[in-house]
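Progress against Task 2.4 (sequence-to-structure conversion) is shown through the following example record, which the project officer requested during the mid-term review.
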Amino acid sequence: MSLLYDPEFPEEDVPNRNDGQRVDQYGFEHTDDLSHETSEEVISEYLTVLTRRSVKWSRLLKDNTKVEKNLKVKRYVRKGVPNEHRTLIWMAASGAQQQLQMNHGYYHSLLKAHHDHNLEQNICTDLHRTFPENIHFRESSQLCLQKALYNVLLAYGHHNKDVGYCQGMNFIAGYLLIITKDEEKSFWLMDALLGRILPDYYTTAMLGLRTDQEVLGELVKLKVPTVWQTMTRHNVMWTLVVSRWFLCLYIDVLPIETVLRIWDCLFYEGSKILFRVALTLIRHHQNLIQQAKNLPDICDRFRQITQGEFVDDCHAFMQKIFTEPGSLSMATITKLRETCRDRIQAEESGR
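Structure tokens generated for the chain above:
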């Protein structure tokens, strides 16, 4: 089920508005202030990188209907997937394309089935809260994405009854629709993320999410001990400062171009990318964090570290996440997950 953007705002030629707002290629409005002009300089440089990468990707994908996982493709993904190839790479790398082909018509059957009223109500409550700053999610848009967003969330809620609908899923589905412009592909990418890459993040107990926040704490203890000592000294739980990072996969935390580059690697390499991003942000700003005097001060500094030139320059930032945290294997994360999950469950059973 393909979606096309409003022809007045094609992706390649999004207009400037005359009310002090500019609309980017994804439909998000920005204020034309000094900080945005600085951002434009970064984007201009990045476009040069994208053009070069696009040529290489086009050569790689020429006459190829399948994308195989190998070191060359992994290297290409880490250096950035051009927007015109994103849907193909995300679908192939995550296994979503295989699921779509094996379950032909399944998505549409979910939409035709009897719907749970509570599920519908919960989804509808969040529709108008989803990207109000994006022109494609407004009812006034010629091809408003709210209906497509509703369909994807409703279908997924019936597909995965253990999850149903949870706040935060609307933003993930919204990003997927912005990139794929296709409901069915967005649905299967949701399935890959929530069902395989990030299991138990969005269930009622959110055990996967809570576990990974504790895993991050253990990794910080190993790799950035001064920050861990600061957090411990002020008795700050990790969920207070990083829950949005993990729950929304950095949406509305980091700039959209940076988030999309993170997602390129997330679909290809899995959840350890979320830890690499978090560790890079924390390690790079460890001096700022360890100067915090109290809990509100720590929370404020964790907000600060997700803004500015360091994260705006997505190409340089993505290079950093593979160097700054040092070695980080999936085996290490798996072992820490087992330890942290057992600890959480033991604490809960002892209450």
